[in-house]
Input
Amino acid sequence: MLITQDQGFHHPYPSEITPPQVYAQRRSLLVHLGAAGLLASGAGAWAQSAAVPRPGKLAPLDAKVSALAGAQAKDNITTYKSASTYNNFYEFGTDKADPAENAHTLKTRPWTVEIEGLVKKPGSLSLEELLKLSAMEERIYRLRCVEGWSMVIPWVGFSLSELIKKVEPLGSAKFVEFITLADPKTMPYVGSRVLSWPYTEGLRMDEAMHPLTLLTFGMYGEVLPNQNGAPVRITVPWKYGFKSGKSIVKIRFTEKQPLTAWNKAAANEYGFYSNVNPAVDHPRWSQATERRIGEGGLFAKKIKTQMFNGYEAQVGQLYAGMDLAKNF
Ligand SMILES: Nc1nc2c(c(=O)[nH]1)N[C@H]1C(S)=C(S)[C@@H](COP(=O)(O)O)O[C@H]1N2
Ligand SMILES: [Mo]
Output
């Protein structure tokens, strides 16, 4: 790990990341045939997709398979084991295995999310109220970490836009800030100088309103494991993973572009937009390729990173006319 006196913690160089030990490789041909079958017949629209076997560890969270364009990546789905034991959640430690080991202390009930700032309906929503706000969908998204690895995860949730519409942002609201839990009693690294706490993130209003931006409550047909950001997180599939804040307690609507945790830590390395872009390198490494966690273990071959993580058709228009090397 690289900890310097002046700048705190940095994402490690990809070469420093310990590859996960042994990850079973699973073909997902049947999986996708299953999902397609469900969609085509319309049968079982409200059942969890046959695509994703439930690990049976946590409470089930039923969802219909999302019909939204771009919401069903055709890639092999990462195993639940990899997705829940190879994590970044620095409140619980900086090694990939730390969150799975330490996050059992996180208390996810009772849980409320405060809505504040430039909205007609500010206030506090309980997790129970949030869960009932819109129909749950299952969406298979690629998640690309800025460190150069990626996963394919079947998330469960609904478009963040559903919540935003209900709280009625004012015309002056241009950005949405996500503030995550920072509880030193249950999160051992909160208080350390690894990052400044709470971990915050932000999106421009049109990014937050984009239907692919998922308010996420579950994965693999069950509620989120703590290490993946229980009980509620954001998932923004075309951006580097760190934009997807975990364990959110506050959503604030602002006129000015909010500061974000990684931008505060190293502004020259992590910009506000952080769209996945193979043509714009991180100052310390290339972003042209990635390693898919679980596929080939130590010998995983690198695959090409796609523009906007493969979601260009859906989101490219949001950035028309912008210089993406400047707005990295
Ligand atoms: N609160 C919080 N959210 C966070 C992080 C974190 O350290 N704290 N890490 C981010 C990073 S770097 C990544 S790659 C993703 C990983 O999500 P996953 O563990 O569910 O795959 O979570 C993001 N959200
Ligand atoms: Mo990341």
User: Anything to note?
Assistant: The CA atoms of residues 32 and 200 lie 35 Å apart.
